[in-house]
Specification:
Blueprint lengths: L1 E5 L3 H12 L3 E5 L3 H8 L10 H10 L3 E4 L2 H5 L4 E4 L15 H13 L4 E5 L7 H11 L6 E5 L9 H6 L4 E4 L3 H10 L10 E4 L1 H32 L3 H9 L20 H14 L5 H24 L8 E5 L15 H10 L3 E5 L5 H6 L4 E2 L3 H5 L4 E4 L11 H7 L4 E4 L6 H6 L3 E3 L8
Bound molecules: uridine-5'-diphosphate-xylopyranose.
Length: 437
């Protein structure tokens, strides 16, 4: 199949690379000149494990090319994917659809051969109809039928998620578009991946409902964690105990400092807005958003309490600032709330993060950066784990205890058993560990 991917951002690039690896002929269209030059030179502009190897391989095989010429790329294409950004609009939280609609117009103006236009960007319910209307209003000489194909990729395991998805969701308007989409995903047949065809609005809703449900699951266990801290339970065991019920399932029940990232915060907010717009408030999701927002500051309080009620004049070693491990993404990371609040309370901060590069340094001014956990702990009055990178999972806790000026160990991801921490001579604070605190 001949595929065009518009937008070489996170979703677009991963999808383009994986489709080319399926054996399709893929042209990835990118307008940003600097990004395009990088891609053409075979450089991956984002951090995603395995992506560079797969991209280099498919460029070499001649299946993946990069271009800024949409008109030429679309000639003879079976499908044109829209994978441009939909950031949350400043002020009201609505998804900003400028890029999606501009792209639809450009497709309408430049289209010469019939194709299926597939929206991969996460777009509010009703957007795909509007994309169809915009393309039609340009009166292209041939038909472009809009389909919706939401993605469920997790940063850090996007390649695996693309190659071995739980399911493929496609909203279509006709059997012929369904046929094209079946063909594109045929390589996954061997793995018996369920592919579900729906109408456009249902596909759009599935994406928001999936992310809102997962965000709700996390927020639910986070509140149970708060309860455990007061009543004496252990939230990890509670999560295991309820997760063994197949109706609940054990995944996404890790209590922590609150969800962040590029999807959950944006998509929960967009669903709340859509509900309000249609007079059907999504009250559960509204509460999830509010509880998750408040949680980040509650973590600051927890750290201050662990430090004896004040961090004034103290140095705190922070391990991990990205919103989760295996990504350099800082979007809505809990660290962006916790660290400035600690500094306002008078603390000095030393940070270690395996990938928190330029973006983290820009977003967290005034903190000191070191290369490893032991350097961070050296002379600090407390050590706080915010992101559960592998590099922080097997630390020599006795060495950490020797390096710290005070034995304060705050594990916001519950990666260390409290007993092990206490045995090393450190005072342990976790999340939802009422029995030890
Ligand atoms: C998510 C969805 O999983 C994916 O399907 C969708 O396409 C995009 O959004 P991602 O944001 O990459 O993916 O990361 P994910 O692993 O889902 O984690 C999201 C946030 O929830 C992170 O901040 C993570 O730390 C937090 N989380 C996750 C928890 O706090 N507890 C959990 O049990 C799981």
């Amino acid at each position: 199949m001949k595929i065009v991917m518009i937008g070489a951002g996170y979703v677009g690039l991963v999808s383009a690379v994986c489709f080319s690896d399926f054996g399709h002929q893929v042209t990835c269209v990118e307008k940003d000149r600097t990004r395009l030059d990088k891609l053409r030179a075979g450089k991956v502009p984002i951090f995603e494990p395995g992506l560079d190897r797969l991209m280099t391989h498919n460029i070499a095989e001649g299946r993946l090319t990069f271009s800024d010429d949409l008109g030429t790329a679309m000639e003879g294409a079976d499908a044109v994917f829209i994978a441009v950004g939909t950031p949350a609009r400043r002020g009201d939280g609505f998804a900003d659809l400028t890029y999606v609609y501009d792209t639809a117009r450009e497709i309408g103006e430049k289209l010469k051969t019939p194709t299926v236009v597939v929206t991969k960007s996460t777009v509010p319910i009703g957007t795909n109809r509007e994309v169809q209307r915009i393309i039609d209003s340009c009166n292209p000489p041939v038909k472009a039928e809009v389909a919706s194909n939401p993605e469920f990729l997790r940063e850090g395991s996007a390649i695996e998620d693309f190659m071995r998805p739980n399911r493929i969701i496609v909203g279509v308007q006709s059997p012929s578009a369904e046929e094209v989409m079946r063909h594109i995903y045929r390589p996954l047949n061997l793995r018996e991946t369920p592919i579900m065809f729906t109408d456009l609005e249902t596909a759009e809703t599935i994406k928001y409902a999936a992310n809102a449900f997962l965000a709700t699951k996390i927020t639910f266990i986070n509140e149970i964690a708060d309860l455990c801290e007061k009543t004496g339970g252990d939230v990890q065991q509670v999560a295991k105990g309820i997760g063994l019920d197949a109706r609940i399932g054990g995944k996404f029940l890790h209590a922590g400092p609150g969800y962040g990232g590029s999807c959950f915060p944006k998509d929960t907010l967009a669903l709340v807005q859509t509900g309000q717009q249609h007079g059907v408030p999504q009250r559960i999701v509204e509460t999830v958003v509010a509880v998750n927002d408040a949680r980040k500051s509650a973590m600051t309080e927890k750290i201050i309490a662990a430090c004896g009620g004040s961090v004034e004049g103290k140095r705190i070693a922070v391990l991990g600032v990205t919103f989760k491990p295996n990504t350099d993404d800082m979007r809505d990371a809990p660290s962006l709330v916790i660290l400035p609040e600690l500094m306002t309370a008078g603390a000095a901060i030393t940070v270690c993060d395996p990938e928190g590069g330029a973006e983290a340094r820009r977003l967290l001014p005034g903190v000191d950066w070191v290369e490893d956990a032991y350097s961070a702990a050296d002379g600090a009055d407390a050590l706080v784990i915010i992101t559960e990178w592998n590099a922080f999972r097997g630390m020599d806790l006795r060495r950490i205890a020797d390096l710290l000026s005070a034995p304060v160990f705050v594990d916001l991801r519950n990666i260390y058993p409290p007993e092990e921490v206490e045995e090393a001579g450190l005072a342990h604070t976790g999340v939802g560990k009422g029995s030890v605190n």
